[in-house]
Every structure is written in C-alpha cells, then in structure tokens.
What does this fold into?
Amino acid sequence: HFSHDGDKISCVTNGFVGAPPIPPTVIHQAGVYDVSDNTFTALGGIGWFSGTETAAGWNISGDGLTLVGLGWSPNQTNAYAVVSTNGGPLTALPWMVPGRSTRANDCDYDGNIVVGWQDNPFGFRQAAVWTNGVGQRLFREYPKKPLGEALACSADGNWVTGVGNDNTNSQAWRWSQGTGVVLLGELNPAAGFNAIGTGMSADGNTIVGREGAGPGTNVGWIWTSSGGMQNLTDYVVANGVTLPPGVTLAIPTDVSADGRTFVGTASNNTGFVVRIDPPAPATCPGDVNSDLIVNVSDLLAVVGAWGACPSDGACPADTNADSAVNTSDLLAVVNGWGSCP
It folds into this structure.
C-alpha cells in the first residue's frame, strides 16, 4: 500500500540478520520503500519469528509516516498488530483477548487510528480498532454479533469497513463511533457470498469491495453515500470508462482519497487502474473574462466587441458561438448576473 502522495510503500524486505534467539534463516521483516529515493528502511520485528518471517508491513498512513502490520510474538504461535512511526522500531498494540493474535490492516491519514482484527476467544477474526493505542472490538449487537475483520479506514479516521459475515447477513458494513454499524447491502444475496469492503475514500463516502469465492465468481462493487451499492463494472462504464470486451472489475482492492480511482484485479487476472474524470465544471456563458463572476466587466466586454467576430476565431464575448457579438450575448450577461455556479 502507498502513502497518499505515492512516495512511501509498506512492504516486507529481505536480508534480515537473525539475532539470538532468532536464527539467521529469518530473512523477512517489515519495511518501508521510498520511491523518490529508491531506498528501503528495514524495521525488524518485535522479538520472534514464524518460519522465515519476523514481521510484515501491511499498510502505511496517508502522510507516509506510520507503518502498520503484524509482528510475531515470543510464543511463536501468536502475532501482534504492530506500528512504526517515523521509521522507528516496531511496537506492539495491546491484545484485547489475552493470548489471541491480532493484525493491523490499515490506519487513518496520520496513523492515530489503526484498524484490523483481533481473534476472539473462539478463534474468529473480529474487527478491531485502536485509537491512540487503546483497542476495542467491533460488534453489530453486543456481545452476540461481532463484526468480521476490518480491512480499511477512512483518512479522517471516522469510518471503518471490512468483511461481511453471518452477523451482518452477509452484507457489507460501515462503522463509526457515532453511528455504530450501518449495513450496506450486497449485490447478489441469492449467491450466498459475503460482501467484503476492501477500500474506502478519504471521507468514507465511497467504499469498494467484492463478492465471490474465487475465479469466475468474484464481482466487484462500489457503495456511495448518495447512490448505495452498485456493480463496479457497470458504475465505471456508466461514467464514461471503456473496458476491454468481456472484462469486468472483479476484485477491487482500494479506492483513491477522492473516490475516483480504483485498483485491483480484473476478471482476466490482470491488474487494473481505472480513473473516472470529475464532472465538467458548470457553464457560465455570461462570464466573458472567466473571473467566475458576471458583472459590469463582462457587460463592457460585450459592448466593446459588438459586431462580427474576427476571422481568427478569438471572440470571448460571443457567448453563444454564433460568430457575432450582439443582443443575444448582451442578454446572456444580464441573465447570468452574479457569481458563477
């Protein structure tokens, strides 16, 4: 995952030199890659390992200063959600169920809100949020309906989304401290797949995710606060995007801060980046001098250019593009008087 400016990437690096009691065969550790400098910063682990790994970076804050992920604890079978700030050593976030593993999947723009999962007493991965290091588990209905793993957090830290489960009737969900759980629906309830939220815009008003159980069944979706849940492929096509014949946006994994760029895996197993252009600005035909207000300056410009437009085509006072500045253009100024939309 990238910081918002694209310069920092959370990752797993190679080349870790094990220190007792970590053997030298442990080569994977959490790290940050700096794109502009072409350098890796290795962050190590929190004291133990599993296989060849001591820790892994799963995401990075929007400002690029906080890495979050997973570090292996000394009992070898459990893991901690971990955080590194400003390239400093990894620190473990507290368990909320003693002896049960956690992992951090995402965080807000400045790294103060971290989201992920906490294994509950029965091994079920439950949504978890740590606010300035203090953890809580998320429920739809306390204490009987824990939410599935939290996968994404809005940049402002207000909203969380993640894995739908039986406790949400397979629907995707959005959660905040103020609202609790809001169910977002699912594309095809009859198929029996959970709707999984994988990415969220900066304000939490656009969420992307998927439904499915593997190749041929995955379908990408988008939820917006204004339009509800829709098929992502249909949504981008309706907004002017042309896709290769037969290709769908099957597994979206994230959405940009402004909610207009989508990344993931397409149905033909290739990666995709799809960008929807913003809507064209509202027209303001009486604004002859393009200062976003229609006033005396525009009126004088029309009067000063009265008559046929020059042959070179430069004729800003011709508001209706009829190659002449006349009464119609004067009326456009009068009718548009005031600030442009």
